[in-house]
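Quick bug: Endoglucanase output formatted oddly.
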Amino acid sequence: MAFNRIFWLMQLTWMLSLCCSAFTSEDYSNALGKSILFFEGQRSGKLPSSQRLTWRGDSALSDGTSYHVDLVGGYYDAGDNVKFGLPMAFTTTMLSWSVIEFGSLMRGEVQNARAAIRWSTDYLLKAATATPNTLYVQVGDPNMDHRCWERPEDMDTPRNVYKVSTQNPGSDVAAETAAALAAASIVFKDSEPSYSSKLLQTAMKVFDFADRYRGSYSDSLGSVVCPFYCSYSGYHDELLWGASWLHKASQNSAYLAYIQSNGHTLGADDDDFSFSWDDKRVGTKILLSKNFLDTKVEEFQVYKVHSDNYICSLIPRSSGFQAQYTTGGLLYKGSASNLQYVTSTALLLLTYAKYLSSNGGNIQCGTSTFRKEDLISIAKKQVDYILGDNPQKMSYMVGFGNRYPTHVHHRGSSLPSVHAHPDRVACNDGFQYLNSASPNPNILVGAILGGPDNRDSFSDDRNNYQQSEPATYINAPLVGALAFFSSAATQT
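Here's what came back:
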């Protein structure tokens, strides 16, 4: 209760900064609902009667059958029709973290957020338990898939199944899957305790598999995971990340001992300034910093130090500042899907602000001291930019605001719905829709796209996938950030 009072006081202290906000609490709440609704557009498998994006239909109902496993369900990662395990698991971890930290602020949307998580965890459970010492990590040949432009409901490209095993390890994808299942177990602990227990027990087994049979899945499956989702950062970061989530979920001292014994060799000593589906180091530091803030256990001080260094890198007035921002104020990390870094950074900023709030802490950057309100202000600038407070005056969330992209690089959205056009659209026939100047016939509500370039310019062009393609891992961290601001704004 004391923490909740502090947390709400934290929000009240910066209400003056909200008085001139470009968006109201209703705007943030609206965006929150849409950001979760987006995941229904990415669903694979048999759609439920509660499906709200009704232009979608059932798809990939035979996934895994030829391999004698059930791999129906899960999410398509972006605008294609492949189910990639590494980004799907990371998406699940981020959605779960959003609910863990800010679910109490989501009001009526928390049930939809849990449903979005469960759509993935049901699939990940099947992928992790179908065969002993095996994790199924991908369905669909991306090279063949990318040669077609067809609806998932029509696709006839090979639905090859790929796995990691004791002989062909994939510690990165396995440890991320363990993190996803462990984080989700926290989400369902009160509402569905038996399901939560199943998630946690499976997470423990998958992590043990990841740790015992070490290797990168890029080495085992390079021809089909690269260059799409190569594990460029290696697997050490995922092992520490997975152990951290298992400790948080289970409170089992064995994971604490694992972190203390292996942290230095798995990246605890490294400063890092990017957080994504590939590199988990910064996220792990933020997550573990709470252990030091709460307990002052000396072994965890290093995580607080590195977390501070990361935050300092984002603050323009800081001696440690090294981030790049556009003229319009957008954090800029790369030309392809830059908004994935923006949304993940926003979640980390707000989560760290929350952790600091519960312990009365500040950030020390050289001789300068920064408060949690400074972190919130940076996160708010990024979220507002995405929603339309930017030089283009364009919302980069599809379906939000008066002006948003209409030529989204997304097969199902750009082709006529199976309900409007029941006849099959063949592989090559779909390219007429990719290259069409007409807006997408189906609105992928809530999708956050790759976003503008380093000059705040955006080309609303389906073929410009670096800017116009959505992805589940872009949306997932934003869910938590929008929940925070939808509630914070109501305190004014």
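Actually, after a second look the formatting is fine. The beta strands are 83-84, 134-139, 161-165, 363-365, 368-370. Closing.
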